[in-house]
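yo

u said u wanted the structure for the complex thing, so here. seqs first:
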Amino acid sequence: MSSNLIVVFIASTLMFAVAGYSSDPTENIRSIMVDNQIVRRGITHQATLRAMRTVPRHLYVPHEQRRFAYFDRPLPIGFGQTISQPFMVAFMTEVIDPKPHYRVLEIGTGSGYQAAILAEIVEKVYTIEIIPALANRAKEVLSRFYDNVSVKIADGFYGWEQAGPFDAIIVTAAAGTIPPPLVDQLREGGKMVIPVGSPYMVQQLMLVEKRGGRMVTRNLMPVRFVPFTRN
Amino acid sequence: MTDSRGRQFLSLGLHSAAIIAFQIALMQLISNVQWHHFAYMVISIAMLGFGAAGTALSLGRKRLANAANWLVPLLMIFSGGLMAIVFPISRAGIMHFDVFLLFSGGQGFAALILNYLIFFVPFFFGALAIGIIFMVKSKEIGTYYFANLAGSGAGGIIVLVFMAKFLPLHLPALIGALPVVAGLLLSNKQTWKQNLVAGLVSILLIVLLVARPGQMILSEYKDIALARQLPETETQIQKPSAYGFTEVVYAPLFRFAPALSLTFHGDTPGGHVIFVNGNYFGHVLQHNKTGDSHLLNYTTMNLPFVLGSKKRILNINAGTGTSISHALSHNAAHIDAIIENRSVISLLKNELRYASGEVLLHPAVQVHHQQTRNFLANAQSATYDLIILPLMSEFGGGAGLNALREDYDLTVEAFREMIRTLKPQGMISISTWIDHPPRYSLRILATLAQAAVESGILHPQDHIAAVRSWGTITFLLKKSPFTPEELQHIRKFSLEMQFDPLVLPGIRQEERNYFNQLNDTTLFNKVEAILSSHCEYNSTYLFDISPPTDNMPFFSNFIKISRLAHLSEHYATGQLPFLELGFFTLLATLFKSTILAIMLIIIPLTALKRKTQGKIGTLLYFGSLGLGYMFVEIILIQKFVLYLGQPIYAVVAVVSTMMISSGLGSLYSQRFQPIPATIAKAGFAIMLLLTIMLLFLTPMLQQTLAVNMYFKIAISFVAIGLPAFVMGMMFPLGIRLLSMQNPAQVPWAWGINACFSVVSTSAATLISIEAGFQTVILIAIIVYFAASTAFIISGSIRKWFH
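structre next:
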């Protein structure tokens, strides 16, 4: 067990013990998570780091997984889906370089955590989930904190034409194709980011950019390696 | 227990058949709900059951022998009931584990152990019944051992028939009926009442489970489980078959679009999808007879067709016919399509005939239900314009789930055969999903280059081209060098589709990284190294990307034990399983089974403070037999997969032939006095036969690959049966010698034998991955040498000490 994991484990265990003495007992553990898992691995985007310190990740995972919520790994959320590991969420957010005026589309709401991080930073987040149970669960949590997130239960393949074009698109549910409608709904100069591979295995991140009508893809570091490079 | 020897033999045979059949059925079920890696887990659990039964016998020898009359039938009936019920129990929430979660944070380890224990129980009680019979009949062990082995051999065949006829969930209960019948057969005047009651309870349970088998609860990460999460999805057909449980799911939102060009603006189809054992097999696309543009034209897989029309095509492992449809859309005049899964062929020709646009019934298409190597061995030279291989790996990389699978279609020898069947202008097309760090693509290139050189192509770099999209790479190997016009066509195609050329004669470095940019240039550097025949291209890489051969046909395994230290210098050790799950599952199985074997067999036995002599000889002899027998069995299975064409045939043919032949050997051994000299002679005969196997088996199988199936079966029977016959003599001879010299050690010997068998199952696979099949046979020869001399050495040591 790495030293990071031990710190987070102890902090998670203490979290509920101190619940009565602090307004938000998870604030400290989020800080540890950001410092140890994210900043140490080179994420510098300030808005992303702020959002990661703010959003209570444990509220976005199923009850039985809450004690692992701040661990350095993806977690199952049911229906064969996962909530990405914290570093992965931060890395994807940094890659699209979100600005306050951005309109961002997310394909694959899942837990709703990525949408929440984006909602902390940008003007408007549109998120689509095909599995109704997941969409409803995420909608319920997100609506408690944000009024700038719209959740739709639909097939993400067609994107959200009425709300586009988008400054950035995050496709967390890619399966061997980049849907052509999404390419069309991306604003000129916009960025689309796609994690490739099973969340439990070696993942890489693919960035698709629209430059002068030409689509350019760029494979970034295999992200599973980055957090787990010896430290 | 009845005195009728006929009923005793029949009962023992039936019971033994059930244990083997249950083992194979459990492997099939676990492949369905989890992944096939756990097949090794099942084998080791079965062996562990035998080992622990030996321990129990050793500890309670006299009491169990005295109770044999009433206990043996009850144990059989009980194990039958357990076989029926353990799989349903394993579906309870508390027992649920998932392979991904095991490695990612260790969730589910307790459930995995519970699974081990629950599956262990029927094997333990089943084996205990056999062990007691062996113990009380140790003087006639040869005859009873024959019944045991012949029954086990028949069990392999029985389960194959059951798998073809019944749904997977029905198998345990149906197989569980066999030991119940076996137990009832042993009833006599004193025991018939108790047996009848126990038998009726078990039969009632079995009937209930057959009538209401419940639902198969799959890992939520299985392909079929993910498809079923999507709206409007409906399972339409479920077919049991010997190739695996085949299901057709209608899933309109589960789309087929393998790394389409970003220039594509149309819709992508969903529809009928075939899954085998819960794993994605392929989409059934409507073959478009109007000649409209095919979806695959927007993928790298269109590369061979931009170089002119291909009239005669061989489509290897044509799956659900997508590439056949693609070739037809390019006016192919004749397509030989190899589809190994007969169940899929039947679906596409019947139930899915219209959904597939009758693609397999097209007059230009000839479907061959055959293994590729068998087909190639019979194919004439200079026949094809194009050979298409299926898309390899999967989106985002293969996760190493196929690492342990022998893939004889992708060895240097296989590609040499393909090159032979190409016309002078013909070409091979092979595509792969891109993985990071690159492994599949580099191994494909290395294998193509090696096969080209071995086929007399002096400069492979002039004969190989490859194009890369954002998700896939397609390689072409052309028998003649690419012409300047062809190179121009490839560049034009790449530009239009926004792909990048990866390999072309005379390629410029900047051409490679234009549309789909890679930050890490390992792929490019290694491609250069392979093509310029740098010997170090493999040794300097973290992964093993050397070309696989028929001796080590593990195309999808990229890990070598010798490189683990090097790998963990680059990546944290705990993360290595995330690179290659299959290899590490095997390592974990070996580790777990060794620990459990020590805990359940060795420790209880060494705690037995019985003054016995010759423990070293017994340990060496029976340990070597356990190791050697399983080594030979596993290697023969792996060898005969190529020869007989289907893994399931190979398993049944090898296991059944070995069991029956060893049973006959056991029967024959009754004629001999159990003395060390006889044992040594039998051991040396085995060594001689294994040496012949080492030297001549591979060339013999290669030479006769093209002969008809009847000859193959005859050859297989001789090649497997002869050594197995002599190997079958060793165990009963040893037991008889031991029962004369030291009867207290008989159960201990049985336990030791099982313990080493447990470990050898995964060890044999690991050694064959690491060093090749021949090395495993060589080790088996050494191990049998140790067995041959064990009693002699042990006797000499004893004399020396005295």
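Chain B touches chain A through 49 residues (CB under 8 Å). The longest helix of chain B spans residues 709-741.
cya
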